[in-house]
Design brief:
The complex is a heterodimer.
Chain A (H helix, E strand, L loop, with lengths): L1 H16 L6 H47 L2 E2 L8 E2 L3 H8 L1 H34 L4 H13 L2 H11 L6 H8 L13 H29 L3 H9 L4 H12 L1 H17 L2 H6 L11 H11 L3 H30 L1
Antiparallel strand pairs in A: 1-2
Helix pairs in contact in A: 1-2, 2-14, 3-14, 4-8, 4-11, 5-8, 8-11, 11-14, 13-14
Chain B lengths: L1 H23 L12 H11 L2 E7 L4 H17 L4 E7 L7 H8 L6 E5 L2 H9 L7 H7 L1 H4 L2 H7 L8 E13 H6 L8 H13 L3 E3 L6 H15 L2 H9 L7 H15 L12 H9 L3 E6 L3 H7 L6 E4 L13 E9 L7 H11 L2 H8 L7 E2 L12 H12 L2 E2 L7 H15 L5 H17 L3
Parallel strand pairs in B: 1-2, 1-3, 5-6, 8-10
Antiparallel strand pairs in B: 3-8, 4-6, 4-7, 4-8, 4-9
The chains are: A mainly alpha, B alpha/beta.
Amino acid sequence: MALFHQEGRIDMYTNESSTIIGNPVLDKERIKTKRRSKVKKTLTALSFLAPALLLYIIFMLYPMLDAVRYSLFDWNGSSTTMNFVGLENYLQLAKDDIFHKALGHNLLWVVLSLVLMVLPTLILAVLISKVKYGKTFFRAGFYLPSVLSLAVVGVLWSKIYDPAMGPINKLLSSIGLGFLAKNWLGEPAFVIPALVIASTWAFYGLYMILFLAGLQNIDYQVYEAADLDGAGPIRKFWHITVPSLRNTMNLVISMVIIHALKGFALIWLMTQGGPFYMSEVVSTYVYKAAFSMNQVSYASAGSVVLGIIVITFTIAFNYYRERSEA
Amino acid sequence: MSGNKQLLSFISLVLLLSIFMAGCQSPSASPGAGNGEEEAKAEDGDSSNTLSLLIPNYYNSVEEEQWSLVIEKFKELHPDIEVQLETGDVRVESGSLTSLLQSGVNTPDVILMNSGPSRISVLSEAELIQPLNDLYEENSWKEALRESAYQLIAGEENMYEVPHMMDAIAYFYNKDVFEENGVNVPASEKEFMKALQKLKENDVAPITIGARNGYAIGWLFGIMLESVAGTEKMEEVLYGDGKWNDPEVLKTAEMLKEWVDSGYISKNAVTLTEADSKFDFLNKQSAMYPGGTYLITELAEQDLQDSVGFFMMPSFIDNQTAEPTGGIGQSWVIPTKADNRDTATVWLNFILSQDYVETAYSSPDYNFILASSISTEVEPAGDVLNDASQELEQGSSYNPSVFIGVETKEAYFQNLQGLVGGLVTPGEAMNNIEAEAEKERSEGN
């Protein structure tokens, strides 16, 4: 209401001003009033923005900037003094083989997550949307893993992958494929894919719900027209469903990339980055550096590098998306 | 009218911000809030008679009962002190303890934590725990400790810990499994290797180990180092000019690989946790389990005290005897931000007293060899602890995990895991560990 009143006043002055041009005293008064109302307008806007802005500054912006600050010092996390070392931590990271390995694992995680998460989840959502009876049951059932705590998911999948007693190896042995049984979390070729599968299982419900919401917004008449034109289900999927879900797909891809680059809990619970750094990702490496080795500044530098990568990925993806839409 | 509304909006905003700021305050930061200063003063007055303890998470209900007996005894001796006992993760490696102490919120008065220079130094260098030199002098703690325990913490300018228990890490073995397979407790290298071979031939897993937990694979490798390289060599590596890739140490790494290749240790051990391997052992699915006396309470809980024995791997060096590895297993420290140093001192005096030793050792399932000098005069009621205690009387060697720096330790754990998983060669593993150790040496750590 206050805004309407203000705007009303401004309009009134503006209209009035057209009749009194040429009078310098009134002109000054008019400018003053205009300025005052502008300040008032800004203050009002700021007062509405302030709570959210304040929370954003305190809880998001400040910690991020502080992490950048820490990364320029040599600090153990609690000492009262910090030595300024400039970019020394970044130079060390550039020479750190384990950090490079961890970054490589992060990228592999991103690729595998995209492959396992986006299209399969979309197909699942489409299949559920086609179900005539028990849609709610399937929706709830498939969403169930997403409500489990990651600690539970970690323990559960550690047992599933157990080389001696895990159901995967038991099943393989029982059907005569024992030679395929592996130590899934212990072999370099399998540890990251095994962790990604566990992570996919834990999160696919969320992406499925997003796709389901997107599917509901597609005009059914388009499918009817396609039916009349004799289009089959696969053609309808590729030429109607996928393009219509472009925005949802973009959101899901962005979320999958960000999640894959930031993933920590499951890896920590299931392998702690081992064996022999084979599942080390930047977040586990940074955690060890900060809390096990008290190298808070070095860890901050690692986090900043990861943050920059995440931001770059997100911006690049959105830029590509906007260009391809244009 | 609109002015009033703006004023109201502004007042609401200020109120919201005040509530928000108040909500962000830590409880300890607002003693004056609530019922005013009097309440805060009253709280301060009470807190001088309280003692807040943080100890490691209980392994099982047996340990919980033992601690309640200890607290009861303390309360009996000091009825004026109110004890608040809390359990938690006190491993420096996980970062929990460091985070707790850094936060300064609800800081305990005294903490029982996993010991060793690499752990204590992380906290002392960050000034998270206080030096105790004055308390050592005032309370004659030097005399109250075993000579060997005191030697391990003395030597630096400041002392930050009061040793609680001595580690004795060696092999636990299932007596039934040994007997069924015609294996006796080995007394020489030849007998030990023969036992491994025989158990393997009879389809029994000779050694179980949870290599996913670095400290557990560290226990096994420490025992092997003591037997193959010897105490002197380990002293050289840890304190002298010895290197991790010296032939004696490399030979131990090669032996670990051979044991994995021969099936004496499962390659799957790389993904087993220490809890998994313990489960294997307690369920008699494997013959031997390398570990410390911590296991005793588990044995008690499952009523297995009589069917499990404890022995040190024989020395592979002619005319030498191998000793259990260890050093100080757990120590008490006082955080810098602790409120009640005086009650903490009373507690530490109690820990080093005969009252404590008698309370602890009278329980047949007690699992620690105490570090107090008075404990050498009391015989533990439990057989396994008694065996371990007697082994320790002969001397003890080094569990490297507790004597090396944090960065070397990370490389040590990862490379030993890699050795078990066949992911790195013995030569590469030892070179990697040496590279980290060299880096720490050059940094003066």
